[in-house]
């Protein structure tokens, strides 16, 4: 895997050692697109440990799944941080290592040789939880099935957990943005959180704490990096025609934010985070059943929901985003100046849109004055 000019990793074939077996084409889940699925069960769920939820993107259910696997002598793989704050996939075998895998990471993760590691762990009979984007899950499963084609029972020990994915942003853009914030605050970053909940779950913030004690924190509707991600300015091109919407990845369990939870379960709407849990396989069903029986009552709360509600309030489960119209222009200018300035200029609303917004505010103000 090697980065392109936009910072995304793509496979490169070494023709000097390729034996032309064609196995990559035969097993590629993009070429051989899986069928769409409907979940066996849907839940709104929260962990009642507020400290855990504070450090989780949603309701803390990933940690519950991971702890379950670790308690049975298994190993957990997920997206964490390298020493220089690149997003990488890594393993966790205890609670301390698990902490780094919590929380969303809004940049493409570098898998390194994790797929081989997962296969090796399965070969020893060990239970494995692998957490990643739908395309990563589909790729991992295709690899393991191809390598273990004579012993697919090993998949019984592989619990795959993906997420309802909007898209994957460029790690190069985040690296440049982080470097700019470090220069502005006069010290290297000491921690990064894309989903800081200081202002609540619904209005989460990007937070960087620096080694000199200073902090940058900006809510998702103000921070230019988060806005660029949401508006698909620097996301991976394949995300605009994702092959794994509609739960096609093969994951056992899919996690996400239960947005608009107040419309169906107002009792869970405390703005600390509520998880959406989609269960799609018998292994996923059995895992959730064991969690509910082992960690029920005051520890977690599970309320059964339906897929129609998910499709209404979380459209990324079935729809791919459109690339921003100025995406190409953004990458052409990316390294020619300040990335923050470039993002602000491109993401600034057009003149006509600003005029419409101004008129709307004026009408609202006049109406308020007339009613008083």
Please write out the topology:
Layout: E1 2-3, E2 9-10, H1 23-27, E3 41-47, H2 50-54, H3 61-71, E4 75-81, E5 87-92, H4 95-98, H5 114-123, E6 128-131, H6 134-147, E7 158-163, H7 171-185, E8 189-196, E9 205-210, E10 215-219, H8 224-230, E11 253-257, E12 275-279, H9 282-294, E13 300-304, H10 307-313, H11 327-333, H12 339-347, H13 351-371
Parallel strand pairs: 4-6, 6-7, 7-11
Antiparallel strand pairs: 1-2, 3-12, 3-13, 4-5, 8-9, 9-10, 11-12
Helix pairs in contact: 8-12
Write structural notes for this entry.
- The chain has 372 residues and is of the alpha+beta class.
- Helices cover 34% and strands 18% of the residues.
- The protein folds into two domains: 2-168 and 235-317, no CATH class; 171-232 and 324-354, no CATH class.
- It has helices at 23-27, 50-54, 61-71, 95-98, 114-123, 134-147, 171-185, 224-230, 282-294, 307-313, 327-333, 339-347, 351-371, and strands at 2-3, 9-10, 41-47, 75-81, 87-92, 128-131, 158-163, 189-196, 205-210, 215-219, 253-257, 275-279, 300-304.
- An eight-stranded mixed beta sheet has the order 5-4-6-7-11-12-3-13, sandwiched between helices.
- The chain starts with a strand and ends with a helix.
- The relative contact order is 0.15.
């Amino acid at each position: 895997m090697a980065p392109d000019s936009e910072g995304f990793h793509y496979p490169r074939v070494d023709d000097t050692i390729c034996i032309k077996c064609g196995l990559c084409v035969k097993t590629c889940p993009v070429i051989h697109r899986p069928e769409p699925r409907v979940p066996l069960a849907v839940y709104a769920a929260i962990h009642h440990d507020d400290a855990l939820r504070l450090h989780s993107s949603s309701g803390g259910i990933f940690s519950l799944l991971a702890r379950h696997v670790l308690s049975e002598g298994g190993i957990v793989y997920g997206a964490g941080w390298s020493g220089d704050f690149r997003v990488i996939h890594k393993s966790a075998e205890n609670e301390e290592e698990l902490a780094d895998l919590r929380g969303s990471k809004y940049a493409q993760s570098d898998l390194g040789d994790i797929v081989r590691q997962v296969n090796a762990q399965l070969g020893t009979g060990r239970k494995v939880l692998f957490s990643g984007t739908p395309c990563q899950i589909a790729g991992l499963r295709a690899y393991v099935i191809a390598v273990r084609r004579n012993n697919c029972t090993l998949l019984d020990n592989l619990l795959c957990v993906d997420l309802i994915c909007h898209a994957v942003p460029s790690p190069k853009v985040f690296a440049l943005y982080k470097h700019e914030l470090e220069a502005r605050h006069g010290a290297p970053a000491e921690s990064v959180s894309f989903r800081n909940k200081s202002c609540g779950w619904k209005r989460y913030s990007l937070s960087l704490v620096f080694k000199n004690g200073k902090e940058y924190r900006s809510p998702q509707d103000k921070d230019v990096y988060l806005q660029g991600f949401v508006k698909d300015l620097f996301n991976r091109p394949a995300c605009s025609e994702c092959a794994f919407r509609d739960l096609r990845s093969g994951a056992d369990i899919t996690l996400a934010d239960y947005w608009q939870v107040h419309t169906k379960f107002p009792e869970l709407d405390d703005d600390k985070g509520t998880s959406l849990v989609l269960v799609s396989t018998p292994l996923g069903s059995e895992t959730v059943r064991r969690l509910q029986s082992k960690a029920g009552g005051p520890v977690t709360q599970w309320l059964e929901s339906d897929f129609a509600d998910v499709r209404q309030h979380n459209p990324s489960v079935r729809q791919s985003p459109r690339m921003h119209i100025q995406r190409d222009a953004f990458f052409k200018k990316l390294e020619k100046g300040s990335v923050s300035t470039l993002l602000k200029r491109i993401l600034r609303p057009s003149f006509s849109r600003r005029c419409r917004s101004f008129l709307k505010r004026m009408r609202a103000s006049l109406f308020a004055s007339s009613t008083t």
